[in-house]
Amino acid sequence: MSMRLSRSIVGEAEARAVSRVITEDGYLGMGNEVRLFEEEVARYLGVKPSQVISVNTGTAALHLAVDAVAAQCRVDGKPEVLVPSLTFVASFQAITAAGCQPVACDVLPETGTIDLADAERRLTPRTIAIMPVHYASNPWHIDAIYDFARAKGLRVVEDAAHAFGCKSRGRMIGSFGDMVCFSFDGIKNITCGEGGCLVAFDEAAGNLASDARLLSVANDAKQRFAGARSWDPDVTRQGWRYHMSNIMAAIGRVQLGRLESEFIPARRMLTAIYEQRLANVEGLALLATDPQDFVVRHIMPVRVLGGRKDAVKEFMAARDIPTGVHYKPNHLLSCFGGGAESLPVTEQLYGELVTLPLHPGLSAEDVESVCDALVAALK
Question: DSSP strand E in the chain: where?
Fold first, then answer.
């Protein structure tokens, strides 16, 4: 197989798990397998199973989190959520889907994560929450974000799509906070094929989100986990069909079992090679992380300086080495302003960022060859 930028790492164990659900359980929807997956995720994170709300995508997790927070807040006009522009469009779409207004914020040049000073300038009486994005799996100064939120009376919805298995100063991301959202899509640190989950530290918000994933049928998830259904239900607010299936959960349970022994060591080993080889290359800059954090890179973006990004990408492509761009800033998208407002650091980074191949299917020799080509491209 030619080198891939990213890929799913699945095999016979995942196939057997899916087969077991089909041939032994026979129920493919949301049932016992999902309950077990939530319990295992909760045990891994060190939280209660009732706090883990599994869904069909990471975007759904974000939507439900913002929706639950907005339901608890009352402002005059459309509620606003502070969010860095340098993120996948899912972050912005989740906010608008919940009836809120995303407020695009600039980022720090050394990390690509939200610039709190810029976020503070964008506060209004309608601001209800801040959505930090753990860009490239980096939970940069998450305590400062929570301090900021407490000081300003805001809720925190963490877009931790990249950060499953990461730690901030010894604490697992998802083991503390407010509303923490993970993605389990095909190429994340673990996959369910598609999927995600929300970890709620506010019981009322968690209950809202749990019901909302099943069309807001009251307590339907609890009924399904008990092997029953709600035949005389009540519905008091809008909901969505966002629940995870038993097939997805079966894949996720196998993947969770492989995370600490296989996926994390591989990702960290490959990242270490990149960092060692590229640390002092002229014309290149690596993104910073806090040495007290434990970062499990989902993607490996680097900054190509001096306006050479496109030329470098072309050089790599000519040698069959794929590269990517994570991401086109949302404030440049037509749906979110089309560049009507400038965010100078975000736009600078967009002109520099090149994502290099990273996934557990790569060998150390593969990464060495990527580094060799990148160094040659910059000479």
Answer: 52-55, 80-84, 101-105, 127-130, 155-159, 167-168, 171-172, 179-183, 196-200, 284-286, 300-304, 353-356
How many Å apart are CA 120 and CA 333, to the nearest integer? Answer: 23
Write out pLDDT tens, residues 44-75: 999 999 999 999 999 999 999 999 999 999 99
40: left (phi over 0), alpha (psi -120 to 50) or beta: alpha
Question: CA 80, CA 83: separation in Å to the nearest integer?
Answer: 10
For residue 81, the Cα-to-chain-centroid distance in whole angstroms is 17
The counts of H helices and E strands in the chain are 13, 12
- Would you give the DSSP letter of residue 330? G
The conformation of residue 177, written as its DSSP 8-state character, comes to S
* pLDDT reported for residue 1: 53
Q: What is the pTM of this model?
A: 0.97
| Burial (CB count <10 Å: 0-12, 13-18, 19+), residue 23 | exposed
In whole angstroms, what is the distance from residue 103 CA to residue 84 CA?
8
